[in-house]
Amino acid sequence: MGFKKIFIGTILILLDFRIQGLNIIPDIIGYILIFIGLSEIIHLNSKFAVARIMSIILILFSIPDIYSINTESPSGLFYFINIITSIIYLIYSYSLYIGIKENAEGINNEDLANKAQLSCILAVVSCLSGIIVLINPFFMIPLLILVIVTLVIQLLTLSMAKDLE
Fold first, then answer.
1. Which pLDDT score is estimated for 73?
2. Residue 117 has what pLDDT?
3. What is the number of other CB atoms lying within 10 angstroms of the CB of residue 18?
4. Would you say 102 and 45 are in contact if contact means Cβ atoms under 8 Å apart?
5. What is the pLDDT of residue 78?
6. Would you state the pLDDT for residue 16?
7. CA dist., res. 24 & res. 22, Å (int)
8. Which residues, in sequence order, are bridge partners of residue 19?
């Protein structure tokens, strides 16, 4: 059930419905679900322990997202927090998907191992690209396509990972 909770938590993070600045489905709910899921699978691989620590940090960083006021010109603090959050998410993704890859290799599930490795590589590229877009918004459209492809592959990997439990 741990991977299923991580899967659902990831979907909840993707959803962003706001009414007058209030996030109806705040990211914190998704990160809490991910934390719970990681707590259930932590015994499978030490990488999941690292991912769980990163999920705690992401829970804390997602608190301000519950309510936000749209501003025309984001501050330097906004960019700094986004870069730090991207780095934390990168460490979380790396730990999660390399842990899945190692466990999949342990049961000779090459398809899952390959998808987990691809998920990890795409997470790294997406996060680094996200930082570049903060500096130069020209790359927004290609990054959006990359992020969508990354998320689809990651969700597919998480749905397949239930076989590891």
1. 56
2. 96
3. 14
4. yes
5. 72
6. 75
7. 6
8. 22
Q: Are 27 and 65 in contact (CB under 8 A)?
A: yes
User: Which of 66, 59, 51 has its CA nearest to residue 19?
Assistant: 66
pLDDT at residue 46, rounded to an integer: 96
Residues lower than pLDDT 70 in the chain: 21, 66-75
**Which structure tokens are listed for 16?**
């962003």
- Give the separation between CA 37 and CA 53, rounded to whole angstroms: 12
Structure tokens at 98: 């390399």
What pLDDT score does 94 carry? 95
Which residue type, as a one-letter code, is found at position 42? I
Question: Bridge partners of 67?
Answer: 22
What amino acid occupies position 137?
P
For 56-59, which contacts have Cβ atoms below 8 Å and span 24 or more sequence positions? 57/88, 58/27, 58/31, 58/34, 58/85, 58/88, 58/89, 58/92, 59/28, 59/31, 59/32, 59/35
pTM, rounded to two decimals:
0.86
